[in-house]
């Protein structure tokens, strides 16, 4: 390895391994009594420590991720035949420096499964397997990528990655764990955005300032629900502190998700490691401070989602309707008095509520708002009730008014309700720096801004519009602007992370000086620049580029020598192994059993929860609706996320934290997972359906059943050894079952054995790890 | 591998370092082996060879504490709803004197605008017990026999008057949800000795869980393996412990044999992927857990006399008695941390005596007194007393005033309340700190929840400042960034 006297080397040279090792050295160096770590040190092949020199200029001393993105030259490589696109050149160049060669390509079956699970989170069906097998050339796979990106399942798979980052959940947590009304519309917005390939810069602007955009719509209002997804204590110990915690949550999710920075650490004091001051933290808080939570006491409220134009139109419509209601009321005055007389004499009966009856007694102008609303919601029934006393002319006039109302409603339909904060004044409240981060210790007032180290010039704060301060729009324009050094780097790294298991920067939400340096800094910058320019911020274009590379299409083939020197596979000498996320596991099982319900969008479904779990709840009867299996067979992204009671199957399989932004999933292998997968309701149900499916589609022939099972589950034929073992299992299990349970007929014993085989297959490692 | 017993200089700050530095900082707290596990879990050494580390047990493998511990396991008796200090362990003669008069002091009384009544003396007479003469009210005739072992902290205080945030703070140190609970921190720090049982077991009240439910035993951002496992009496104490309907033990084994065999075929071609092997192992462990967990809850193996001592023969004490007896069996088997809830569901089903604190406390104390005393006695008889730490208390205390004039209820009091510790490493027969003369607020040697947490960790051999987990740019700790101090007087 070359000299490491320049501390910026990690960022400027394609020597990621060195940088990572350097970090390790810092760690080991710091350990005076480091001897006990010898084992780990050997595994890491750590080099001797080196000193850092003082940087030569301010520009160079700037942390790599704060510098503007510029497109590096694509490096020249020796094995040019391996290079399908610039990604390969960058990766290969680093391998060739060590005289390493990339792993051979993955087999067509492995690549097919990898692409299906990566892009749509489901294994290929029999028919799809057949189609793919007809063209397994590199070009054939390019076409497959196009097809998969066009599938609706793409948004359901990739939308979930986004939901992790924005701490999505459908309740507030705490004592009441109250529902966030209509928050599922935000989830649908995310899925739709991915499926429509909404440019990322637009996606950013909509979530940060969807209400302040010129072309705001219901959709962009719903997008701003992003800010409001966090937990909320509706009975806080200290209201001022609680309000501030909410602002801190908004700052934290915004800065981590879009910028990959840990700005929230500067709440009580200047950031200890990064160049963010406490003052700058509060300048960002000032941007969110105008947002208010629609609430009535402890109740969290939703709002109609629409631009001010749409809202104004609805308001106008409602005025017109009220006018028509008034006309009807006037036409009906005479009839109403007859009706009321008869009613008083108990000569007629009515189901109209008392409030409506009372309203009929007074002139329209004298009706209270509540009475008018009551009349509005019962108008057709009122007219029907009064019809016997209306003359022809009055009847026609009433009918005309009713049709006018219907037309008005058709013309301007109600706006969907959404869950988002609102900003309702151009005047922003003052924001103060808080001493020691305490809400009750205000310091000097601050103006909106962003950390200086990230921006070449101060944040350009727009003038307030007649309706809002436009501070968030100012922030959105800066984050989604071409000059932001972090936005594109952070998002291309996230996409890379979900394709390769790890990002080029392995701390995907921390690009600061304390985060991990990129393993391929030039590649990261090239991708970031490409994405924001040629790529037009299109996720689908970025996927196509990455998935076309030979880097992505490598196999996981092992190499002892490389592994010894680079156990983390930093240099991408092979494909890293990584377990699927729980959503892909659960959805795959449903697909294999044939029970997957592909209905999209709308209110969430409630997966099965064992009764024992509900016992743990103060309100055990109210919290989880009765199990509806068809609904529950929808994809896991539609599963209800209740903060105080995460569905056990999802929780045990490492679903992310729902209270804070989660940049990556943990992967653990513990006994409770195995118990869940072996004995739990979900897997056993699917095993039962899977067995029925095998009988229906493959008949009673054991060999055919085994073949079909392997095709459905693993997209391949079983080996001879696998077949032999399973056949023997099926034979002996059926026999033993007959012995265990007297009087069982042979067919039932065989079906039992087949179901057990299905349970085993659903539990195999091959199902949850792709090659 | 043994660990040099030395402490590293702390980094100058709490915020933001990379995972690698987190390890540098905390690494010295664990054995080398355990550190390897952590490194591996963190993706730092992604491809450790299987023989280099213990495999699936990695996360929960027993780890050496930072220093010699007072206790190796902990039982937290959580009195859900908030027991009244002046009716249990904090006698207030002045309350007798001022009984039925208006409180005129400066302390914020009560919660949520509930009515404030007059000062209300305790109807439960206090007596001095044991050689130490520790005063305990008549609510606890059985526990009083252990008076010389109790270390009562009368000067507890917390930040919130609400149950949800109160329970969550008592369990996780934070008033907000999403942070790991004390039990998960202990599991993370020490692992567990019996891999066939969960390391952190929670048993709740049949009337319902505490408010906030699983947030109270959540592993937060720690790996799910560290979270509390909800344990039940009966055939299936752990979720999904029972074989699927119709599958016999032998049938389960045969399916597992096929699973293992097919997995090994697959693994043979991917021998360097230790994650695959870990997952294969997890199924074997699960199978053993099925037997081990059933065995724990099989109380038919305990004598009739034992059943009686724990109160299983009396409907009032039966449920908590069963939980205590299961706790005994869990402790015998090396389970690290057990939390028992007394009270669940709403208001009077918990210790939340708003309307009638007197009958409420009579009921809940009677439900728990005999069982927990029997458990403590058994630990002494089994020679496990010195290894076991007992913690008793709720999320806050109750006001010395009644809730409304002439009403027997008491409201929440978070300014001052009582908890007690006993067992390994604890100096018993003493009361630490004091509330004011009426019992409202901690005035002498106040102990915040985070000080209690620091003390419990200390008793378990863990330094609360060293036990950290790097997450979201911060070295997260149970006790948080604020200063916390071990209550030295507690230590034997």
Cα separation of the termini of chain A:
32 Å
Total beta strand runs of chain B = 17
Please outline the major beta sheet of chain A: 2 strands, antiparallel
Number of helices of chain B: 11
The major beta sheet of chain B can be summarized as:
9 strands, mixed
Supply Rg of chain B.
Answer: 23 Å
Strand content of chain B: 5-15%
What assembly state would you assign to the polypeptide chains in this entry? heterodimer
Rg over CA atoms of chain A: 31 Å
Structural account:
The complex is a heterodimer of chains A (771) and B (492). Chain A has 771 residues and is an all-alpha fold. Among the domains of chain A are: 1-53, no CATH class; 108-152, no CATH class; 199-304 and 422-485, no CATH class; 315-405, no CATH class; 681-768, no CATH class. In chain A, 51% of the residues lie in helices and 2% in strands. Chain A has 34 helices and 6 strands. Chain A has helices at residues 9-12, 16-30, 38-44, 58-61, 86-97, 108-119, 126-133, 138-149, 152-165, 184-195, 200-209, 218-223, 239-259, 278-288, 308-331, 333-344, 354-361, 369-386, 392-411, 471-479, 487-500, 521-532, 539-548, 560-565, 582-593, 611-615, 629-632, 648-652, 671-679, 681-698, 702-714, 720-740, 746-763, 765-768; strands at 295-296, 299-300, 303-304, 417-418, 431-434, 442-446. In chain A, the strands form 3 sheets. Chain A has a two-stranded antiparallel sheet. In chain A, helix 9 (152-165) packs across helix 10 (184-195) and helix 21 packs across helix 23. The longest helix of chain A has 24 residues, at 308-331. By secondary structure, chain B is an alpha/beta fold. Chain B has a domain at 73-238 and 301-463: Alkaline Phosphatase, subunit A. Chain B has 11 helices and 17 strands. Chain B has helices at residues 19-26, 32-41, 93-97, 163-172, 182-190, 249-268, 274-297, 304-309, 315-332, 357-381, 449-459; strands spanning 73-79, 126-129, 134-137, 151-157, 200-203, 229-230, 337-342, 388-393, 397-398, 412-413, 417-423, 430-432, 434-435, 442-444, 447-448, 468-471, 474-477. In chain B, the strands form 5 sheets. In chain B, strands 1, 4, 5, 6, 7, 8, 11, 12 and 15 form a 9-stranded mixed β-sheet that branches. Chain B has a two-stranded antiparallel ribbon with strand order 2-3. The radius of gyration of chain B is 23 Å and the shape is globular. The two termini of chain B are 30 Å apart. The model of chain B is unreliable at 1-57 (pLDDT under 50).
């Amino acid at each position: 390895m070359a000299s490491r006297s320049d501390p910026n080397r990690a960022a400027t040279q394609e020597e990621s391994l060195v940088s990572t090792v350097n970090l390790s050295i810092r760690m080991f160096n710091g350990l005076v009594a480091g001897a006990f770590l010898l084992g780990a040190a050997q595994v890491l092949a750590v080099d001797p420590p080196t000193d850092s020199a003082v940087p030569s200029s301010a520009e160079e001393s700037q942390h790599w991720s704060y510098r503007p993105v510029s497109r590096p030259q694509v490096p020249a490589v020796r094995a040019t035949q391996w290079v399908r696109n610039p990604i390969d050149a960058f990766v290969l160049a680093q391998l060739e420096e060590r005289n390493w060669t990339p792993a051979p390509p993955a087999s067509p079956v492995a690549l097919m499964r990898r692409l299906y699970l990566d892009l749509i989170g489901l294994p290929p069906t029999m028919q799809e397997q057949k189609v793919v097998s007809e063209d397994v050339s590199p070009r054939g796979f390019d076409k497959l990528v196009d097809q998969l990106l066009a599938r609706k399942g793409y948004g359901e798979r990739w939308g979930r990655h986004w939901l992790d980052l924005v701490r999505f959940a459908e309740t507030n947590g705490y004592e009441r764990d109250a529902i966030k009304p209509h928050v599922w519309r935000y989830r649908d917005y995310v899925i739709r955005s991915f499926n429509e390939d909404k440019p990322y810069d637009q996606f950013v602007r909509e979530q940060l300032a969807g209400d302040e955009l010129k072309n705001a719509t219901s959709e962009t209002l719903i997008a701003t629900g992003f800010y409001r997804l966090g937990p909320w204590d509706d009975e806080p110990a200290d209201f001022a502190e609680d309000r501030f915690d909410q602002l801190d949550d908004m700052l934290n999710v915004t800065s981590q998700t879009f910028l990959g920075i840990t700005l929230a650490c500067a709440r009580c004091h200047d950031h200890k490691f990064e160049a963010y001051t406490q003052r700058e933290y509060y300048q960002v808080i000032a941007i969110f401070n105008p947002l208010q939570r629609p609430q009535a006491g402890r109740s969290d409220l939703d709002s109609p989602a629409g631009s001010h134009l749409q809202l104004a139109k609805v308001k106008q419509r409602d005025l017109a309707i009220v006018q028509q209601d008034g006309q009807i009321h006037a036409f009906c005055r005479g009839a109403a008095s007859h009706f009321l007389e008869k009613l008083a004499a108990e000569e007629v009966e009515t189901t109209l509520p008392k409030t409506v009856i009372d309203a009929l007694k007074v002139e329209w102008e004298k009706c209270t708002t509540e009475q008018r609303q009551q009349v509005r919601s019962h108008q057709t029934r009122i007219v029907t009730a009064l019809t016997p006393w209306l003359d022809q002319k009055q009847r026609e006039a009433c009918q005309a008014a009713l049709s006018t109302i219907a037309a008005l409603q058709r013309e301007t339909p109600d706006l969907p309700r959404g869950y988002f904060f609102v900003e309702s004044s151009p005047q922003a409240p003052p924001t103060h720096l808080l001493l020691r981060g305490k809400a009750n210790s205000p310091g000097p007032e601050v103006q909106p801004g962003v950390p200086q180290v990230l921006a070449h010039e101060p944040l350009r704060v727009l003038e307030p519009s007649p309706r809002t301060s436009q501070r968030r729009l100012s922030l959105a324009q800066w984050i989604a602007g071409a000059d932001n050094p972090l936005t594109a780097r952070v998002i291309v790294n996230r996409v890379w992370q979900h394709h390769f298991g790890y990002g080029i920067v392995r701390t995907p939400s921390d690009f600061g000086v304390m985060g991990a340096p990129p393993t391929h800094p030039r590649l990261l910058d090239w991708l970031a620049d490409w994405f924001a320019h040629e790529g037009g911020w299109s996720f689908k274009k970025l996927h196509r580029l990455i998935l076309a590379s030979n880097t992505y299409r490598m196999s996981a083939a092992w190499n002892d020598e490389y592994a010894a020197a680079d156990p983390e596979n930093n240099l991408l000498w092979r494909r890293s192994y990584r377990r699927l996320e729980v959503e892909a596991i659960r959805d795959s099982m449903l697909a294999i059993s044939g029970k997957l319900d592909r209905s999209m969008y709308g209110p969430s479904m409630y997966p099965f929860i064992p009764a024992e779990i509900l016992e743990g709840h103060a309100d055990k009867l109210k919290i989880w609706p009765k199990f509806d299996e068809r609904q529950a067979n929808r994809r896991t992204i539609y599963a209800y996320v209740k903060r105080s009671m995460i569905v056990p199957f999802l929780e045990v399989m490492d679903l992310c934290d729902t209270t804070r932004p989660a940049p990556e999933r943990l992967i653990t292998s513990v006994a409770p997972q195995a118990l869940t997968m072996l004995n739990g309701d979900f897997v056993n149900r699917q095993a039962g359906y899977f067995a029925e499916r095998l009988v229906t589609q493959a008949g009673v022939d054991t060999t055919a059943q085994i073949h079909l099972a392997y095709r459905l589950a693993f997209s391949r034929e079983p080996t001879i050894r696998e077949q032999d073992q399973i056949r023997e299992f099926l034979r002996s299990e059926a026999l033993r079952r007959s012995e265990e349970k007297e009087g069982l007929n042979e067919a039932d014993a065989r079906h039992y054995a087949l179901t057990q085989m299905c349970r085993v297959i659903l539990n195999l490692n091959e199902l949850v790890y792709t090659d | 591998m043994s660990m040099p017993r030395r402490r590293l200089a702390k980094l100058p700050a709490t915020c933001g370092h990379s995972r690698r530095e987190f390890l540098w900082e905390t690494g010295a707290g664990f054995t080398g082996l355990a550190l390897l596990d952590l490194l591996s879990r963190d993706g730092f050494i992604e491809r450790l060879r299987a023989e280099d580390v213990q495999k699936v047990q990695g996360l929960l493998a027993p780890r050496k504490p930072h220093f010699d511990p007072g206790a190796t396991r902990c039982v937290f008796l959580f009195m859900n709803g908030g027991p009244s200090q002046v009716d249990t362990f904090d006698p207030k003669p002045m309350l007798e004197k001022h009984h039925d008069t208006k409180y005129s002091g400066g302390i914020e009384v009560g919660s949520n605008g509930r009515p404030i009544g007059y000062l209300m003396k305790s109807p439960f007479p206090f007596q001095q017990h044991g050689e130490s003469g520790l005063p305990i009210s008549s609510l606890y005739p059985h526990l009083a026999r252990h008076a010389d072992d109790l270390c009562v902290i009368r000067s507890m205080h917390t930040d919130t008057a609400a149950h949800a945030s109160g329970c969550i703070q008592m369990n996780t140190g934070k008033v907000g949800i999403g942070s790991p609970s004390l039990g998960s921190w202990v599991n993370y720090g020490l692992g567990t000795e019996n891999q066939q049982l969960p390391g952190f077991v929670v048993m709740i009240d049949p009337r319902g869980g505490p408010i906030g439910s699983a947030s109270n035993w959540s592993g937060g951002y720690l790996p799910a393996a560290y979270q509390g496992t909800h344990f039940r009496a009966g055939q299936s104490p752990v979720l999904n412990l029972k074989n699927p309907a119709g599958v016999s033990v032998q049938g389960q084994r045969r399916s597992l044999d096929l699973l293992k065999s097919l997995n090994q075929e697959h693994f043979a071609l991917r021998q360097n992927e230790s994650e695959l092997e870990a997952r294969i192992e997890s199924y074997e462990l699960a199978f053993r857990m099925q037997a081990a967990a059933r065995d724990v809850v099989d109380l038919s193996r305990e004598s009739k006399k034992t059943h009686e001592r724990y109160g299983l023969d009396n409907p009032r004490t039966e449920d908590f008695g069963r939980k205590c007896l299961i706790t005994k069996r869990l402790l015998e088997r090396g389970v690290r941390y057990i939390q028992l809830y007394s009270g669940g569901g709403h208001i009077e089903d918990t210790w939340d005596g708003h309307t009638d604190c007197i009958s409420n406390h009579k009921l809940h104390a009677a439900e728990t007194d005999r069982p927990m005393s029997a458990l403590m006695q058994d630990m002494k008889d089994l020679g496990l007393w010195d290894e076991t730490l007992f913690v008793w208390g709720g999320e806050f205390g109750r006001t010395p005033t009644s809730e409304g004039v002439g009403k027997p209820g008491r409201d929440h009091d978070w300014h001052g309340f009582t908890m007690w510790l006993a067992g390994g490493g604890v100096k018993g027969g003493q009361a630490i700190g004091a509330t004011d003369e009426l019992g409202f607020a901690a005035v002498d040697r106040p102990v915040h929840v985070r000080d209690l947490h620091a003390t419990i960790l200390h008793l378990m051999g863990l330094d609360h400042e060293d036990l950290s987990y790097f997450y979201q740019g911060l070295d997260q700790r149970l006790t948080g960034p604020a200063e916390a101090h071990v209550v030295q007087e507690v230590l034997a």
